[in-house]
Design a protein that fits this description.
7 helices, 11-stranded mixed beta sheet, single chain
Length: about 290
């Protein structure tokens, strides 16, 4: 086991947490493109923390135009072993009202304009994302939410839409018929790329609205969402602080192998691999490529 480094990706308000020690912003470059922002390096009670504003500070980048590969690569280069995604979402269930948190464990990826893999022509790999969330990390997030008296549920399916527009009413009702619990625009391909990078991943979905399916609530309104997000951000800050204080200082092996996902994933024979792509994969896949 190595040292745990807890990564947090989400909105800018999350980073104003009392108790952060040795906090400073660093630019971490990636061969995959432009990282959304600098990364905030800090500690909480001796645990290294890395914060990345997913949309950039000031919310400059739309979900479609986030360079997810660059973000995950930069977090991996920063030493992150466990990544918690803090995400604003719409609710597709009556019993998940605005202000409720859901620790999801499944995703349906409906995005279509995003690069979804670090691998490709010249170096092919196929990782399993049957269980896209790392159970120990999800359990730790749930326990921290409960400890902070946050209204939270464990388990659920997050429908990831392309955006930036919200759903039509027909789409919203379709996703409900599929059994989805929440809907958002950001967790794919983030979760898939985290698995390829062998980073344990979990999502804290913070409900801001009822999407547009609910007859007793108006369609999604940005102003109303922002108002709910203020309260959600304060709760998320408490959750993160509790999580950091109770998190294992030594990274435990993931029971589903999230941290060893590339052990049996790379299919391209060593002599056929593209040297240029291998160089770009130094952080993401260096552990397995060095031994090939």
């Amino acid at each position: 086991m190595g040292q745990s480094v807890l990564g947090i990706v989400g909105g800018s308000g999350l980073y104003d947490i009392p108790g952060l020690q040795n906090a400073h912003w660093e630019k971490v470059s990636s061969p995959w493109g432009d990282v959304s922002d600098e990364i905030l390096f800090a500690e909480i009670d001796g645990l290294p923390i890395r914060f990345l504003p997913r949309h950039g500070r000031g919310h400059r980048i739309s979900p479609t135009h986030i360079d997810f590969r660059a973000n995950i690569d930069a977090l991996k280069r920063s030493g992150v072993t466990d990544l918690v995604s803090i995400s604003a979402c719409g609710s597709l269930k009556e019993h998940y009202p605005p202000g409720h948190f859901v620790i999801v464990d499944q995703f349906i990826d409906r995005t279509f304009q995003r690069e979804k893999s670090f691998f490709g022509t010249g170096l092919v790999a196929h990782v399993s994302v049957a269980d896209p969330v790392s159970p120990l990390l999800a359990e730790a997030c749930f326990a921290s939410a409960k400890a902070e008296a946050i209204d939270v549920s464990k388990g659920g399916t997050y429908l990831v839409m392309e955006g930036p527009q919200f759903s039509t009413r027909a789409e919203s009702n379709l996703y409900r018929s599929w059994g989805c619990d929440v809907i958002g625009m950001t967790n794919m391909p983030e979760a898939k790329l985290a698995r390829e990078a062998e980073v344990c991943y979990s999502t804290v979905a913070m409900v801001t609205d009822y999407d547009c399916w609910h007859e007793d609530h108006s369609e999604v309104d940005v102003a109303a969402i922002i108002e709910v997000m203020k309260g959600n951000t304060a709760k998320a800050q408490r959750l993160i602080l509790n999580l950091a204080r109770t998190f294992p200082r030594e990274h435990p092996p993931c029971p589903i192998g999230s941290d060893r996902a590339l052990d049996v994933a790379i299919i391209t024979r060593p002599e056929a691999r593209c040297a240029e792509l291998m160089a770009k994969l130094d952080a993401v896949a260096g552990r397995v490529l060095k031994r090939s």
